[in-house]
Amino acid sequence: KDFEKKLLSIARKTQTRITILTTEGNVLLDSEKDPKEMQNHSDRPEFQQAMKNEYGTSIRWSPTLEEYMVYYAKLDKKKNIVIRASFPLSRQKEEPIGDSFFSLTIVMLISGLIISFIMAKVLTLPVYEILRFSENIKEIHNVNQSIIKRKDEIGKIMENIRDIATRTKEVFEREKVTEEEIDKFIEMISFPIAIIDAKGDIKISNSHFDSLFDIQKEKGFWWEKIKNFDVIATIKNIAEKKESIEKEIKIREKFYLCKGTMLKDNNSILLVLIDITAMKEIQEKKREFVTAVSHELKTPLTAIKGYIETIEENTENPENQEFIRIVKHHTERLEKIVEDLITLAQLEKENPDIEMKNVNLVKVAKDVVMLFEKKAKEKGIEITLKYDEIPEIKGDQFRLEQMLINLVDNAVRFTEQGSIKISLSYEKEKSMVKIEVSDTGIGIEKFHISKIFERFYVVDKARSRKTGGTGLGLSIVKHIVLLHNGTIEVQSSSGKGTTFTINLPV
Question: What is the dihedral sign for C-alpha 8, 11, 17, 18?
Answer without folding.
Answer: negative
